[in-house]
Write a structure and sequence with these properties.
The protein is of the alpha+beta class. It is about 35% helix and about 25% strand.
Amino acid sequence: MSEFSYTAHITGLKELYGSMKKLPVTIGTFDHIYNKVLSSVIFDTSDSANGWKITFMNKGNGEVLILPVAVGYRLEINGNETYSRFIKYFNISGKKGDFHIKDFVDKFNSQIPHTYSVTEKTREDILEYRSDGEGKYPIGTRNWQIYHALHPEIPDDKFHRSPENLAKTQNCYPEIYEATKNMDLTIIYGKSPGKYTNAIVNCSHDWKVDVTE
């Protein structure tokens, strides 16, 4: 039995990516419905080494489907196992003639937003995708350059901003990312807003001053 293989050029992803780059963010999200399956779709361009991907997260049962996006904004469904996961996720009949994959591609393409913006909902979807339990609200900051200057006994290779923290800030709060991306500074997140949240979100906070709840 031959292996299933299908590749589709998704024009909407090119427009979406162009809008994401202007913010700039590396992960975009939007809602999608096909065959009565409502999903949050995550378009993740953050890993250039291993390639981009689309993740469908079923809002009803939490099921997840991941499909690679190849160079040229080409959505790939390769291999019988991947195709089986695809039709199972969307509750599609596997009988010949019951389903035309181009119908899915056309409807998927039509639901991709041309312009991307960061909202409360996109933050929640991204944090669910990243399985982030810290929360979405900036409640504090830690400037590691200042911290190390005040604590010379701590080795220089200890305690710095993590790539994960920087990526979270970039995709959830691009304005904060732009203001702090060249600093060794950690944004502290919580599940509820704190007394410093507004100043941090509005970038009116003095980044050289550590604040914690």
